[in-house]
Amino acid sequence: MLATTLYEDGDHRWIMFARDPQKAEGIIDTNQYMVQSGDQAILLDPGGIELFAPMLSAVLKFVPAEHITHLFASHQDPDIISSLGLWDQALPNAKLYSPWLWESFIRHFGMEKIEFCAIPDEGMTLNIGRIQLQFIPAHYLHSSGNFHVYDPKAKILMSGDVGAAMESTDAPLWVDTMSTHIPKMRKFHQRWMPSNEAKLDWIRRARQLDIQIMAPQHGRLFQPPHVQEFLNWFEDLPVGIAIKG
Q1: Is 2-236 assigned to CATH 3.60.15.10?
Q2: Which whole-number Å values give the CA distances from 143 to 54, 99, 216, 229, in the listed order?
Q3: Residue 22's pLDDT is what?
Q4: Of 236, 209, 208, 219, nearest in space to 160 by CA
Q5: Residue spans per domain, the chain
Q6: Rounded to an integer, what distance in angstroms lies between the CA atom of residue 212 and that of residue 155?
């Protein structure tokens, strides 16, 4: 599991865990993130059960287990949270923040010790050390209960499946040109994003944020000017289950 520092200012860091060269065939590549401030850290979409061992090993190179005080699951999909039952054994004093809608589904992955903290539909904020993270509503993109995470100090938006592209583990980390990257995103977004109204609501929220890095759950990350280019492209893209693209 490769680890990349996306942002660092004193004891405030964003680490991305991805591009696992040992990933099994047939398992999609996912991007996991950790935000640290002082002696607290949160894992964002910590991954599927098959990634637990390499994820735990990679994370412990940066922080001791007792400093991982929080987990976040943007929605209910197994590729981001089916490892929960194992984290439940490794981090018994942590709290999991996730949409209220998916609590009864997520508990199927195993959660006896970790405390479930429901995120209301309108979103909320969470203090991690000396920083405050914002849980931004992203409902129906693609899950009916879904959130993204924004760090106003680091100016990073963890955007879940928005901006995602399915690529190999040796793909570059950053989007270089939108003209070559758009074909890798188009069909995924047209098939998995079911609501144009929800899409436009999310774009309105995103345009109000100062985003220096947009970090999706799959594929490459976006920096200016590609962030705005993505928003413009996504705004014009017709999406929905009837789109064959």
Answers
A1: yes
A2: 27, 10, 15, 24
A3: 75
A4: 219
A5: 2-236
A6: 5
pLDDT at 245: 47
Q: Are 213 and 15 in contact (CB under 8 A)?
A: no
**For the CA atoms of 26, 61, 175, 165, what is the dihedral angle to 10 degrees?**
20
Task: Report the distance separating Cα 5 and Cα 14, nearest Å.
Answer: 6
CA-to-CA distance for 163 and 22, rounded, in angstroms?
A: 24
For residues 51-63, one letter each, b for 16 or more C-beta atoms within 10 angstroms of the residue's C-beta and e for the rest, the string is bbebbbebbeebb
pLDDT under 70 in the chain at which residues?
241-245
Taken as a whole, the chain contains a residue count of 245
Instruction: Give pLDDT tens digits for 103-135.
Output: 999 999 999 999 999 999 999 999 999 999 999
Alpha-carbon distance 41 to 43, whole Å? 7
Query: What phi and psi values does residue 148 have, to the nearest 5 degrees?
Result: -115, 170
In 3D, which of 16, 18, 14, 26 has the Cα closest to residue 1? 18
